Amino acid sequence: MYRVTKFLFPEMFRFAASLTKIYEFFMMPKPPHARLSSNMQTMNPECQSWPQPPGVAAFQLHKEPKLKLSLETRNRGDVMIVHCHGRIVYRDEAAALSRLVGEVLEHSRKLILDLSGVTSMDSAGIGELALLQNCAQGKNATFKCAGPNEFVRNLLDLTNLDSVLEIHSSVNDALESFAGDEVCADS
């Protein structure tokens, strides 16, 4: 390892020292009245604040329902069909879908997820579908998706999830594919 000292290259250190300037500055705290307040009230003592009406969120008189996904299960023989209406997005909707499908997979080995009523889906919804596929494989169950609209189908194509999931254009097509699986298994 080489060490450069000022004895070997004195002209370089004189040049560097001429470029270096040290600026001193002092930090003065702001006066107490100009600081941010720790509470959410106004700093102006002449301003009047009104109490929030009880039971109504401020400025959200038309509050959305908590869950924007409705799930309905039906069985057709030994096949369980989960119909989804709404959106499959981060948090409550994706968690509700996961809980329901987990319960269905405890009692059935054939599952169709009807996506025809899904209006929107985000990355959490995409991830939830992949997770459900893995869960079904772990329980030796068959998991199929049916009837995605153009938006959902494009998402599945873009994320390459269509290569992992078995996707059918309708619930009837998915049901017929189960019948075809049984014929192949018997021969």
What is the chain-wise order of helices and strands?
A: HEEHEHEHEH
Shape: globular
Global structural class: alpha/beta
Q: Label the CATH architecture of the domain at 69-186.
A: 2-Layer Sandwich
Count up the helices. 5
CATH fold type of the domain at 69-186 = Transcription Regulator spoIIAA
Give the CATH level 1 class of the domain at 69-186.
Alpha Beta
Q: How would you sum up the major sheet?
A: 5 strands, mixed
Q: How far apart lie the N and C ends?
A: 76 Å
Global Rg: 31 Å
The proportion of strand residues reads 15-25%
CATH superfamily of the domain at 69-186: STAS domain
Major sheet: arrangement of strands: 1-2-3-4-5
Helix content: 25-40%
User: pLDDT under 50 segments (min length 5)?
Assistant: 36-42, 56-63, 183-187
> How many strands in all?
5
Global mean pLDDT: 78
